[in-house]
Amino acid sequence: MNKSDQIQKLFVELMGEDVTEAISVSTGIFVALNVEYLRRQGADIEKAINIKSGEGQRDVTIHPLSKLGERINEGRLYSRF
Q1: Residues in contact with 23: Cβ distance below 8 Å, sequence separation at least 6, in sequence order
Q2: In whole angstroms, how far apart are CA 29 and each of 5, 21, 24, 47, 75?
Q3: Are 32 and 65 in contact, with CB atoms under 8 Å apart?
Q4: What is the Cα Rg of the chain in Å?
Q5: Any idea of the CA torsion for 34, 36, 40, 41, to the nearest 10 degrees?
Q6: Max intra-chain CA distance, the chain
Q7: CB-CB neighbours of 38 under 10 Å
Q8: Are residues 20 and 79 in contact, defined by beta-carbon separation less than 8 angstroms?
Q9: Can you list the alpha helix ranges (DSSP code H) found in 1-81?
């Protein structure tokens, strides 16, 4: 079994055990991969990243990093799902 298959198997197991954690892990991976890809392309990763998905699909925005204090002051302190 190659590494990709191993990761997929572990992820499917995680979804069966704790879907909230699976969402958190997959979101973190998605964001990290996009930020790193764009950083390597020379993009300014301090700005919002807009991912256009195409007609009939949802677009995704990765917001720039914020400080915990800013989120609390804006009343937008979110917990994990």
Answers
A1: 81
A2: 16, 12, 9, 19, 26
A3: no
A4: 16
A5: 20
A6: 48
A7: 16
A8: no
A9: 3-17, 19-40, 68-73
Pull the structure tokens for residue 6.
């191993």
Rounded distance between C-alpha atoms, residue 74 and residue 81, angstroms:
19
Q: pLDDT tens digits, the chain, 81 residues: what are they? A: 899 999 999 999 999 999 999 999 999 999 999 999 999 999 999 999 999 998 999 999 999 887 665 555 555 544 444
With 0.85 as the threshold, say if the pTM is over it. Answer: no
How many Cα atoms within 13 Å fall on the side-chain side of residue 17? Answer: 8
Cα 11 to Cα 19: distance, rounded to the nearest angstrom: 10
